[in-house]
Amino acid sequence: MTCASPALTLDQHTRPLGVLRLSLTARCNLACPYCCPDSVDPPVMLTLEQQLRLIRVAARLGVHTLRLTGGEPLLSDRLMPLLAGVADGRRTPGDPLAGLRDVALTTNGVLLSEQRAKALKKTGLDRITVSLDAVDGAVAARMAGLRGGRIAGEGLVQQVLAGLVAARDAGFNPAAGALKLNAVIQRGVNDDQLIPLAELARSQQMELRLIEYMDVGNRNGWRMDQVLPAELMVQRLAERWPLSPLGRNDGGTARRWRYHDDVSDVGVVASISEPFCGDCNRLRITADGQAFTCLFAAQGTDLNPAMGSDQELEQAIRALWQRRSDRYSEERHCKADPVPRAEMAYLGG
Ligand code: SAM
Ligand code: SF4
What we know:
Elements: E1 19-23, H1 48-60, E2 65-69, H2 79-91, E3 102-107, H3 114-122, E4 127-131, H4 137-144, H5 149-169, E5 179-185, H6 194-203, E6 207-212, H7 230-240, E7 243-248, E8 255-259, E9 265-269, E10 282-285, E11 290-292, E12 301-302, H8 310-322, H9 328-331, H10 344-347
Helix pairs in contact: 1-2, 1-8, 3-5, 4-5
C-alpha cells in the first residue's frame, strides 16, 4: 500500500474521519462503578496483524490520531508489539502510517512503572492520559470500585502518582501536553475532589480534563442528577484560580481554559450539557473488531468479514463512515426510552 495524501472521508453531516480509538481489551484491573468493565475478553480477538492493518487503512482514510485504550490497555500483551509496528510504519516513507501525527494512550496508571513508561516512550508513544478521579483515599476507592476503603484508595492514589512521575521521567512532558490527567466527576460522589485534583495537576504543570459523568452502557445506573455540568465545574475552579477561555479545538472533546498565572490549562468534556457531535471525528474499534461511530450506539459494525484484504477493509470502513449520521448526545433529550448500549470499557471511551 502506498501513501497518497489521505482522502477526506465525510459522513452524512460532512464530518471527516480523524481519530481512531482502538480498544485492546475490555478487561480492567479496576472496577469503576461508572464504567463497569468486563471480567473477560470477547472470545475471538483481532490479531496483531489485523490491528496494524486496521490502523493503516484508517490512516489512508484520513485518521491522523491513534488512541490506544480499553478496558485497561496496560493489561494487554499486544500493546508493545502494536506500538512497535506503528512506529515502524511511521518511519517508513510511503507507508500510510507515516501520516499519523499523534499516537496516544489512555490508562488508569496502575501498571505505569518506570520500566514500562520508558519502554512506551522508546516505542514511539507520543502522549499519555492518566485517569484518576480523586486524591482522597476513601473517595478514590469508591470511584475505582475498590474494596478496602480509605487504605486501598490511598494505595491506588500513590500508585498512580508514581506512574505520573515515571511517565514524566521517561520524557512525557506535561507542560508540552504529552501527559494529561482525566477525571470523571460525579455529583455527590467525588465533586469535592475538583479542587484537590486541580491542585495536583497544577503542581505538575499538567492539563486536567474534567469529564461529565456519561450515560454510556447499561450497567452503571446513570442518573442525570449525578451529572455536574461543566459550567459549574469551571465556576468552582474560577472562584479559586481565575481562568481565561481557550475554546474547543475543531473535532476536540474538551473546552479548555488557561489559569491566569499560566501554570497550566484545564479542560472540561461536556458531553451531556454541551454536546459536541457537530464535529465529532472519532471512530472506535473494539478488541474483537466491531466498529462504532458513536459512544452511545447500541450496535457496531463487524469488520471481521472484511479482513480478507486491505481493499475490502478500506471499502468497509469508508462505507460505514459515509453512512454515519449519529449525533446521540445532541438528541439525548428527545429520546423517549433508553435503548441497550455497548459498555464503555468495551468501546474504549
Ligand atoms: N482504563 C483506562 C482509563 O481508565 O483511563 C482506559 C479506558 S476508560 C473506559 C477511558 C476513559 O473513559 C477514562 O478516562 C474513564 O474515566 C472514562 N469513563 C469511563 N466511564 C465513563 C462514564 N460513564 N462517563 C464519563 N467518562 C467515563
Ligand atoms: Fe477500568 Fe478505566 Fe473503566 Fe475505570 S474507567 S473501570 S480504570 S476501564
